[in-house]
Amino acid sequence: MKPAKRTANGSVRGSRARTRRRVASLALVGGLAVWLVAGFVAPAATSTSTSSTTAATTAATTATTTAAEGASPEASAAVLAAVSAPPDTGAAEPEVSVTEVSATEVSVTEPPAAPAAELAPLPVCAYGSEPAPHAGALEWRLTLLDTTFRLSSDYVPEDLVNVQAALAVAAPGAQLAAAGHELRAEAANALSAMFAAAEAAGVQLAVQSAYRSYAYQASTFDYWVELQGHQAALRTSARAGHSEHQLGTAVDLRSRGGPAAWDLDDWALTPEGAWAGSNAHAFGFVMSYPAGAEAISCYDYEPWHFRYVGAELAAAIHAAGEVPREFLWRRLQEQASAGAAPESNP
């Protein structure tokens, strides 16, 4: 009977051993699973999760090692080898793409330009009495005079010189102007250069009229009113204050030895008139009242009346093909639109 008892006890002990081995195997599998999960999660985790994963891996390793102690030598070695090997996630390292933006690729949109201000149209020729634009002592190049705009009665240039004396070098010994004729010094010098060029071209010019004071112009206008009537005089003569002669830069020309230019049908058809009309702008003079421009200039055609504005401005007026009054008005409006300070003479 005792041998039978030993057999039974041996069976019980064998069953218990097998149970311990199964438990150890399950612990091995459980520990390995924990370790594998930690290995997969760790690459994608942040620094905080990395610490947690490290703790979990340590715990898994400890549990697995403990379990391996009750397992067979072969199973323990396999588990320890698995724990020691780094996990293979099977995933490639993520690539970081950095897009560089070149400075030339940055586009800055400029705000749209403000539309240009519309310029006021040239006033129609009407008879008024308003202070002239650019009527300052140093603004005579741009002073706008017509049937509306005027100079004051006390406007007198300070640099008037005798015209005959200034022209003496152009044609020595010739009487080119009356004894009392005067012009601004700059205008007189330019006129002398013009007369010298005319002489070289075989053209003989003379001065019929030059600077006129406010009072002198008043008597001149009265003369034409008495001769032609008031309405006709308004078209051919300026009222006092409205004449460019008061600026000290305007001259009425004629052919030397001939009558007043206005006594001819068209002085521009004479050699002197034709030459002056074609060349005066090169010396800084412009024809104030050209043919066919009565509605713009406000006066009848006067091919003998030239005003000095300087070579630069005369060239601009000539190139624009505009009547001086029209050009000066546009220049005035452009300055006002741009908020520029009034121009002055150098």
Question: What can you tell me about this protein's structure?
Answer:
This protein is α+β, with helices and mostly antiparallel strands and 346 residues long. It folds into two domains: 2-84; 130-338, Muramoyl-pentapeptide Carboxypeptidase, domain 2. The protein contains eleven helices and eight strands. It has helices at 2-41, 47-69, 73-84, 163-167, 185-200, 214-228, 230-236, 271-279, 294-297, 311-320, 324-338, and strands at residues 130-131, 149-150, 160-162, 182-184, 205-209, 250-255, 285-289, 302-308. The protein has a four-stranded antiparallel beta sheet. It has a two-stranded parallel ribbon with strand order 1-2. Strands 3-4 form a two-stranded antiparallel ribbon. Helix 1 packs antiparallel against helix 2 and helix 6 packs across helix 7. The radius of gyration is 55 Å and the shape is globular.
Secondary structure elements and their pairing?
Blueprint: H1 2-41, H2 47-69, H3 73-84, E1 130-131, E2 149-150, E3 160-162, H4 163-167, E4 182-184, H5 185-200, E5 205-209, H6 214-228, H7 230-236, E6 250-255, H8 271-279, E7 285-289, H9 294-297, E8 302-308, H10 311-320, H11 324-338
Parallel strand pairs: 1-2
Antiparallel strand pairs: 3-4, 5-6, 6-8, 7-8
